[in-house]
Amino acid sequence: MGSTRLLLYAARRILLIVPVLLVALFLTFALTRIVPGNPVDRVAGPYISLERRAELKHIAYLDRPFYEQFALYLRDLSQGKMGTSYTTAQDVSKDLRQRFPATFELVTYAMLFAVAVALPLGISAAIKKDSWIDSIARAVSVLGVSMPIFWLGLMLLYVFFYFLGWLPGPVGRTGSAIRFAEPITGFLTIDALLKGDFDLFLKAVQALILPCFTLGFVAMAPIARMTRAVMAEALQSDYVRTARSLGLPFRVVVLRHALKNALIPILTITAAVYGYALGGEVLVEIIFAWPGLGQYSYNALLSSDFPAIQGFVLLVTFVYMVIYLALDIATAALDPRVKY
Amino acid sequence: MALLEVSDLRTSFFLRSGELRVLDGVSLEIQAGEVLGLVGETGSGKSVTAYSITRLLKQPGRVVGGEVKWDGRDLVRLWESELEQEIRGKEISMIFQSPREALNPVITVGRQLTQVLRIRRGMDRREARAEAIRILKSVYISDPESRLDSYPHELSGGMAQRIMIALALSCQPRLLIADEPTTGLDVTTQHQIVLLLRELRDRTGMAILLITHDLALAAQLCDRVAVLYAGRIAEMGPIGHLFRSPRHPYTAALLASRPRLGLQGDILTIPGNVANLMRPPGGCRFHPRCPNATQVCAQQQPPLEPMDPGQRVACHNPMPQRQELAASG
Amino acid sequence: MAVEERNLIAPGAGLTAAPPVVGRFSDFVYQLRGNPATFAGLFIVVVIVLSALLGPVLARYDPYAVDLGQSAVGPSLAHPFGTDQYGEDILTRVVVAARLDLFMVLSAVGASMLIGVALGALAGFFGRFFDEGIMRSQDVLQAFPRFVFAMAVAWALGPGIVTVIVATAAINIPGYARLMRSLMLSVKETQFALAAVAVGNSRWRLLWRHLLPNCLTPIIVLSTLQCGFTILEAAGLSFIGLGVRVPQAEWGVMIAMGLQDFLQGHWWIYTFPGLAIAFAVLGFNLLGDGLQDILDPKRRRV
Ligand SMILES: Nc1ncnc2c1ncn2[C@@H]1O[C@H](COP(=O)(O)OP(=O)(O)OP(=O)(O)O)[C@@H](O)[C@H]1O
Ligand code: SF4
Ligand SMILES: [Mg+2]
User: Fold this and answer.
1) Which of A128, A274, B29, C190 is deepest in the core (most CB within 10 A)?
2) Where in the sequence is the domain holding B311, given as residue range(s)?
3) ipTM
4) How do residues A51-68 score in pLDDT, each as one tens digit?
5) How buried is C33 (Cβ within 10 angstroms: 0-12 exposed, 13-18 middle, 19+ buried)?
6) In this structure, are B79 and B176 located in the same domain?
7) Which residues of C touch A272 (CB under 8 A)?
8) What is the pLDDT of residues B6-17, one digit of tens each?
């Protein structure tokens, strides 16, 4: 019944993303051009001849006026090209594609972990206000937003790798130098299982534990806090009292009546946390030498790899906006009161 | 034997600034098939009485004393799980002051109804749907099939209240507690809801506890009326007696303050302020506002005592009985 | 609607236009007493401010005294927090760093407050294309994940104290602008704003004398919470080398120094600066949450 309208709404929202993305792209582009000095000069160092420099600048369109550079960048982008990275010497889009799965796997598991803990914790805290579980929920939420994520990662590494020796150190996705031939899904854990390589699966899981926990713990805090607040409000609502007055079991009242109402703010905060995790993830990847986008962007920043920086910011912003798009559509689907 | 017997019910809200004694010894009983009205000013504790009976008080309220006898069982001391499985919905159900907020905004009317039927009456999907349609018809909802797909915000106030009544009836309770079922509705709709409630009572034989501050509404529906003042029953008796010859000064004031014209008696105004429940006046809680007050009123709480046939009054200096009534009764 | 809520994760999300509680100081103290967490937050913030003010006076060592003979020594009586690779005393550096970190954070939050409040007030007060233009520009700013945006700005500006301030200020502006706009819209409708116009006050005077003071409470709460977030982000920038650089005594930089020595097991180099950050952020968060409870009439202690 409402599904066609929902589809139309989704289409409209997707179209609306384009102008914002263009402006964001322009901003990023402008940012990389206002940096003093020509990037080639900044990167090339003194031992490269002037002719070679001019040639490099020409390839990167850096000898043209600003607006032309932007137009050319857009043209290349429409063909899936994002310029050649100064450090890897291949197209940035290819770099990003290679590194995306590592990041995606890490962030996905971290978010799953965060939600899997925060939701029950927040709900129990809302049900039993001022109980021990409520105290735990509060402690988690205030500690999670107070700890620097990179420090938490270091402390965990010290305890579980250096001191106890239980988990692998900061050496990336497998905890060893094994490289995986051709990815199927890009998720190392899933690919290993698909190929029946149980040993690799275990290694991948072990390597994931600490970075996932680090990122997940920080992401958990706001979700648990929001869940507690909205569930507490929902449980005190009139419609919950109605459900109880009809003798519906408490489990049904909590999960099907209260939670269904609380879901929208919880989803919203989760999306916001996801965006936050995209930033925190950079720091986590640096600590754990995780071969993903964060690590890539870090190296790009250190070596002033302009096309790479631009590509990274663009991709992350795009992902961020897609998440919000998904959220808006989910909200529209979940809440009959939203007009669209 | 009475269907429901409430005796000396005490309920408090525990605020940080202290204990708010909202109910201070409420006693009343309802016979099977009877409509009992519970009237009183705003804040007198009518809703709290209703929620105390089925233990649905919101935080930080708690029943602190008294008994609620139902079939020989004391609901105050029953396990929450027993209350949930055996009493709520099946024996006693409720309809609420603001129907649209009482319905879950993100679940369709049909689902809310069939969910109850499936969980509480063990029906399967098909049976539940058929039964839901039947119940909606019985509360005079036109085109019930398509109404099942509506969300509460798409309903008018009167429609929402009918849905609420349908929900409350879904498990065929023996007592319906109706907390101001007509506030917020326009006059025509109010009238329709009143007719519906009366018809349901006649058809199903269920008892109704009708909570209202609308005396005209009470007069239309009730067999007996209990008057609540600051968490205590001031007077209780058959509607005719009570309205024609009120014995408690508070009831008399209530009746006197009622607008004379028209059906509605919405706003009750009696000189003085409603009692402060944090530090209630000693003795009779009405004494600071009472024209009949004497020395003893400030010191001793008057017990609820039988006076005229079927009428009980808690007052040291009751109003005189009206002549015509004395002659006839 | 999502755009409005986009910064939920950001400090002070959900702050609404509550009429201020113009309270007496004694009332404030009463509210504080019933709220030990807030009290703890206030205490922590006071400790941080004191060490920022008095740190250099109290310190037993020079924070930049290189002593390679004492390189990376674990905690001892002479050096309770140990020393770093250069033999600098970590306790001294942690205490002294409070000044720099607090300076950067307060400057950033102050700057973003001035700009954001001005933008939001203009948008809310004048409406129309002012409103559209300003709010859409805030949308674009918020299209980037917070930290990634700060990273990009910091990189473009090159390392330094000013960079940290500008980058962290930039990401906080939309929060203020949105809050201020919604406050403006609701306060504008109130009786007393209408009354002030009726009495013949000019619009500017109305804005300055009547509307702004009424928006103060939520702004204070938001700023307190922003301080906590900004400490984390400033330290994060310095940690990855885009902010303040070695050998500055700054908490993020000190953790980065610890990272270099991680495999040697010199845990004290990064543990104590990290604790200092967590402690400071905790203080601002507890205080901010508490202020929200105390100043919001709906959530007050009764
Ligand atoms: N959740 C609560 N927290 C604190 N006090 C409450 C709460 N609910 C009710 N009370 C107190 O109990 C008293 C009685 O409330 P109740 O809702 O029973 O009044 P009422 O007679 O139903 O009035 P109305 O006609 O307005 O519905 C009120 O004075 C109120 O102060
Ligand atoms: S007991 Fe006294 S104060 Fe109370 S109602 Fe009767 S006369 Fe009035
Ligand atoms: Mg009521």
Assistant:
1) A274
2) 229-328
3) 0.88
4) 777 777 777 777 788 888
5) exposed
6) yes
7) 5-10, 13
8) 999 999 998 877
